[in-house]
């Protein structure tokens, strides 16, 4: 998308964000473009998941008010000066990929947020559905001098940081599902995708991606599991800028602690938040399924499963945990 198109769409959304009807003619005059161009931009927004009413004689109106990200408002919620740059972008392919493409030159804590992703990713290469301004799509860069060997349990520490941020914003009853999902009322609220690059035996660069549902469209069909968003958990709804600032704070604090002390400081809290603690679960490991009772995690972040053969630790990779 050209810079001029991005600017026009940004201005158009700023006008529509008041949740009132605006005619195509008035919008065109305000932005200096034709009504046909307005219509084309509206179609692009619809393709990005924005629910826009189009009524003959009235014009266009968003189905619900937009809460757009604003860097200055995000920074208002920082506890101290953030150690690295924060970028707020409009529509990009993937926040993780954006940072991976430039990771060599980044400081720890460099953060990218986007209003929408056209190629968002979850675990195992699954698509992460990313409607416009409906969630928080955030990625943070962090380098680890100790390399791959020191990263065991990182996704668990990140999960604890996300729950802490949500608690600070007034959201209670949030739990964690091994190894990298955040749950509420038994449904998925957020997910973490950590991608690491580097040479064995040397330092590595991690990109920590977080997707957190805020106000997903009710008619969304592409999510292949039960989901929940903050609009169902928080009244009034949390401002996305408040949430973003609080989350950046907690991620920075937790990554700093993890870098110096590993998983140990996070284990007790993770165990207390375990959504499947002492429940029957099945681990899907490739083509194999192992059934037993979940007994939490060990000191390295592996999931502990009790079967007739005793308690065994299972490490990350391609393992999925499901309730029986």
Itemize the secondary structure elements and their pairings.
Layout: H1 3-16, H2 24-31, H3 35-47, E1 52-55, E2 59-62, H4 71-75, E3 86-92, H5 95-100, E4 111-117, E5 135-144, H6 154-168, E6 174-177, E7 181-184, E8 187-198, E9 204-213, H7 240-261, H8 264-273, E10 280-285, E11 288-297, E12 303-307, E13 310-314, E14 319-323
Parallel strand pairs: 3-4
Antiparallel strand pairs: 1-2, 4-5, 5-9, 6-7, 7-8, 8-9, 10-11, 10-14, 11-12, 12-13
Explain what the structure shows.
This protein folds into 3 domains: about 5-60, Winged helix-like DNA-binding domain superfamily/Winged helix DNA-binding domain (Arc Repressor Mutant, subunit A, Orthogonal Bundle), CATH 1.10.10.10; about 70-270, Bira Bifunctional Protein, Domain 2 (BirA Bifunctional Protein, domain 2); about 275-324, SH3 type barrels (Roll), CATH 2.30.30. It starts with a helix and ends with a strand. It is of the alpha+beta class and about 325 residues long. It has helices at about 5-15, 25-30, 35-45, 70-75, 95-100, 155-170, 240-260, 265-275, and strands spanning about 50-55, 60, 85-90, 110-115, 135-145, 175, 180-185, 185-200, 205-215, 280-285, 290-295, 305, 310-315, 320-324. It has a 7-stranded mixed beta sheet with strand order 3-4-5-9-8-7-6. The protein contains 8 helices and 14 strands. About 30% of the residues lie in helices and about 30% in strands. About 35% of the residues are buried.
């Amino acid at each position: 998308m050209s810079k001029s198109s991005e600017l026009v769409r940004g201005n158009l959304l700023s006008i529509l964000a008041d949740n009132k009807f605006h005619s195509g003619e008035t919008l065109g005059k305000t932005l200096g473009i034709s009504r046909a161009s307005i219509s084309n931009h509206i179609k692009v927004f619809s393709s990005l998941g924005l629910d826009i009413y189009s009524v003959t004689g009235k014009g266009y109106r968003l189905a619900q008010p937009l809460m757009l990200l604003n860097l200055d408002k995000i920074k208002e919620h920082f506890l101290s000066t953030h150690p690295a740059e924060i970028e707020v972008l409009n529509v990009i392919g993937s926040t993780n990929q954006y940072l991976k493409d430039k990771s060599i030159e980044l400081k720890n804590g460099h953060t990218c947020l986007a209003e929408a992703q056209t190629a968002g990713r979850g675990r195992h290469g699954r698509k992460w559905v990313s409607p416009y301004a409906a969630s928080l799509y955030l990625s943070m860069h962090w380098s680890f001098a100790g390399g791959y060997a020191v990263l065991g349990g990182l996704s668990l520490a990140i999960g604890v940081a996300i729950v802490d941020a949500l608690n600070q914003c007034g959201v209670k009853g949030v739990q964690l599902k091994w190894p990298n999902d955040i749950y509420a009322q038994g449904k998925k609220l957020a997910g973490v995708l950590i991608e690491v690059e580097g040479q064995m035996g040397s330092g590595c660069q991690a990109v920590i991606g977080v997707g957190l549902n805020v106000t997903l469209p009710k008619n969304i069909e592409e999510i292949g599991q039960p989901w929940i968003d903050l609009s169902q958990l928080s009244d009034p709804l949390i401002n996305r800028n408040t949430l973003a600032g609080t989350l950046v704070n907690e991620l920075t604090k937790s990554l700093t602690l993890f870098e110096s002390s590993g998983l140990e400081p996070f284990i007790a809290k993770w165990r207390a938040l375990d959504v499947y603690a002492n429940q029957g679960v099945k681990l899907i490991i490739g083509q194999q399924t192992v059934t037993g009772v979940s007994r939490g995690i060990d000191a390295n972040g592996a999931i502990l499963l009790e079967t007739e053969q005793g308690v065994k630790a299972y490490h990350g990779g391609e393992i999925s945990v499901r309730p029986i």
